[in-house]
Hints:
homodimer, 2 domains, globular, disordered N terminus
Amino acid sequence: xxxxxxxxxxxxxxxxxxxxxxxxxxxxxxxxxxxxxxxxxxxxxxxxxxxxxxxxxxxxxxxxxxxxxxxxxxxxxxxxxxxxxxxxxxxxxxxxxxxxxxxxxxxxxxxxxxxxxxxxxxxxxxxxxxxxxxxxxxxxxxxxxxxxxxxxxxxxxxxxxxxxxxxxxxxxxxxxxxxxxxxxxxxxxxxxxxxxxxxxxxxxxxxxxxxxxxxxxxxxxxxxxxxxxxxxxxxxxxxxxxxxxxxxxxxxxxxxxxxxxxxxxxxxxxxxxxxxxxxxxxxxxxxxxxxxxxxxxxxxxxxxxxxxxxxxxxxxxxxxxxxxxxxxxxxxxxxxxxxxxxxxxxxxxxxxxxxxxxxxxxxxxxxxxxxxxxxxxxxxxxxxxxxxxxxxxxx
Amino acid sequence: xxxxxxxxxxxxxxxxxxxxxxxxxxxxxxxxxxxxxxxxxxxxxxxxxxxxxxxxxxxxxxxxxxxxxxxxxxxxxxxxxxxxxxxxxxxxxxxxxxxxxxxxxxxxxxxxxxxxxxxxxxxxxxxxxxxxxxxxxxxxxxxxxxxxxxxxxxxxxxxxxxxxxxxxxxxxxxxxxxxxxxxxxxxxxxxxxxxxxxxxxxxxxxxxxxxxxxxxxxxxxxxxxxxxxxxxxxxxxxxxxxxxxxxxxxxxxxxxxxxxxxxxxxxxxxxxxxxxxxxxxxxxxxxxxxxxxxxxxxxxxxxxxxxxxxxxxxxxxxxxxxxxxxxxxxxxxxxxxxxxxxxxxxxxxxxxxxxxxxxxxxxxxxxxxxxxxxxxxxxxxxxxxxxxxxxxxxx
Lengths: 395, 395
């Protein structure tokens, strides 16, 4: 904290020198006659705000390639991701255009009372809201990435609102011997996911609300399953049925994924950004864990020789993005920035070497993807060059 | 809680009877080929989601009348208000179309070092994020209102991110004898507000972020002053200068407003909505206070004869919208619904009579607006008729 305060004072002195001006010189403002916000009934962004989701291969156009688009988290502010910019991995299907009047959610299988709910019926039930991150397991640091959207843009954080799945299962009457559920979406490919019944009863939501409005089409309108802390894959979009079963089904798209471990990344400064010059900056980023709340984030600016405790910004919520920052006075020399975190379970974010070691894979092997599937939480370094340019420094 | 659990069980039995169906009858889904979310780079709402801000007089078109548009809080979900739907009171001016490259914030007056900051300079400073409501004092229950957007739509809640004003004031060096600030916006009318220096130093933000993205034009792009718990009027949009002074200035638009007291309102069911029939519903609404966190919300369904403790949904944050709900089994008879709340300071939401009494004004006089300006926090009742229609029952 002392170092930080010191940094801040240095900035303030410098800024005072730079920013001094004669009192009374009020800057002019342009464009007084334009209605910059567009139609008053629905306020759009400023025309100067142009952040967009970017797809695989750097295109940001429509659905040609993989159907995957990434959150531009290099532009993220706070912890909420605008719904328009929430990443989307659509498993090769267009979002179905579901008429809410015709929507039905079916609960069947090993239950006493198979049920079908309309959207209106679901919205009449007890509900909860939670601010939760969702991260796709394909979020993978590696030398092939240029920006933090490339390496970490498959995560986002929203206020999700919906009906506890436990309530629906209780309603349907789960039969003895049931141990799993199968959740199916309504897209062309009928993406399906097996989940342990214990998880379904613990904290899953059948969610119709995202950030204060109905879930958007790319996120599963009108209904998505939210499975806190599990890979994005599990959060079945366009949810149309839940079948209670006695074993996991190996559907074509099936993999077994469980809570994600702690992960953090610096979003500013990050790959392809540029610092305009030496001086005071706030290094900032996001941390999250499927294991609960983030407990600590540390930031190194010297390639991991020394680590500084970052500030965690309120609110620090369980299984949510957590904003961190560290005041930094850049001296204009090359610097290697990275962050690491721990969660309330005591889990820690590994280095590439620590990640590979239990699997018997070298760091080089990990980066060549020889360490198997699952979550890829290892530390992401960014190199700041003397010209202020920032580059991916992994591997 | 027992009554609530009982209600829930009744619903579940009823629903089970209604919803029974043969397992295997998976509902059909339409529109598999449409990309319902539009351009992948920026995900729009579903075409079936049509909630809009409505202006004075019920028009939702452009800027003809007062320039005021209200949050459609009858459709609100959770506590975050979508930025597109955040109410806007623009004091007769169009949002200026400010180029962020040309934007400057000036701090001057009784300071040692008058300063001017670019947007980029401000974004390099230490920042905080807070989920905070902003409510316009014109939010006024009364017999003239039909919907909850009419009576309570001039409130919204966002995650605001920005620089603590205290930091900028420290930087500029406030001189002895200073006691107020004057904050000025860049719109045509140059809306200006006097605020006590103590408040400015306590918790005000110079905010560039709202709900994870730059503040939208109707909310003050690129920068608005956020004054937690004070009337919307104080949260100067398109903020261009802060002058440190030794007295409050009575600008043409000036009034002195201080923290708002506790207020709550039921958003469902509310005016002009219709219940489809007797049975189980979740009564839900929002509560907030400029005095801190909401402590309790009570709901009455019998015109105030009896009150039930409502559930407060997490997160319950200081000076933020707080979602509440109460399970209710409607028997099909006429019902009078209302909510009341208290905050952590022990302040309570008054009835119309309690609101008028210290001012020597009768309830009828309060509703005829004889009780002076300021905040209008009194209780809002909704009548549910036997046909399920819901109407404003105040006065």
